[in-house]
Amino acid sequence: MKWNWGTGIVLAFVGFMSFILYFIVNVMVDKTYDYDLVTEDYYKEELMYQESINKLQNAENLAENIRFEHKAEGLVIYFPENLKTEVITGQVLLYRPSNKGLDFKVPLVLSGHRLVIPDAKIVAGRWDLTVDWNYDGTEYLFKQSLIY
Fold this sequence. Notes:
The chain is of the alpha+beta class. The protein is 29% helix and 32% strand.
């Protein structure tokens, strides 16, 4: 076989295409490049979107809304002082956009008017905090992004 410019160009194209295909196959097969949707039940959550809007509006109509602070003991979520804590039910969802495996839910178990989530459970970085709670038959929703 005689080597000339044409043979070199064809071999260069074949080598380049092989190189690109190798990386495409690696990304498709390797689980470290696995990117999931924000939620598994996307369509179900979309249907309940108006319900979420109503809950957010209920929370905005409160005289005092939920607030949170990062303290030495962890993430402290404060509930309004004028509410009876024994009537408050719900859950807290901490969603990590960069890693689905770090997401977790915590049931509302208040001590006083606050809930403490220990530092050991929360990795430093960006989190989306969602508090879905119920007080005396009325549902409320609090959403906030935070850098921990």
